[in-house]
Amino acid sequence: MQKLTYKVKKMMGIHARPASALAQFARMYQSDIKLYCQNRCANAKRMVEIMELSIHKDEEILFEICVEDECRVVKALQQYCHSYL
Question: What is the CATH number of the domain that holds 52?
Answer without folding.
Answer: 3.30.1340.10
